[in-house]
Amino acid sequence: MKSLFAVRDSKTEQYFPPFIAVNVGEAIRQFDQLCKNSETMIAKYPSDYALFHIAGFDELTGAIQPIQPVQVALALEYVDSPRRELDISGNKVQSIR
Fold it and tell me: Are 31 and 25 in contact (CB under 8 A)?
């Protein structure tokens, strides 16, 4: 089972199109790259964006299992900040450069 994640823009009150990740850690790694890319709106206005876990996704059947969206990261935590190492559950364990 994989998961669906989406970035939410608090100014427009809308979610970006969702993306698939193996777990929270992988989703945060992708979000971290968006936050550090100075060409993105996320990097330019980090206080407006957050990453949410929005569903489970069964890659064998294609079934999507919606959940109540859960915020897993804020862009402000990742823009111009040290990279965070995550354990398998996506919990922050230490910051590294």
Answer: no
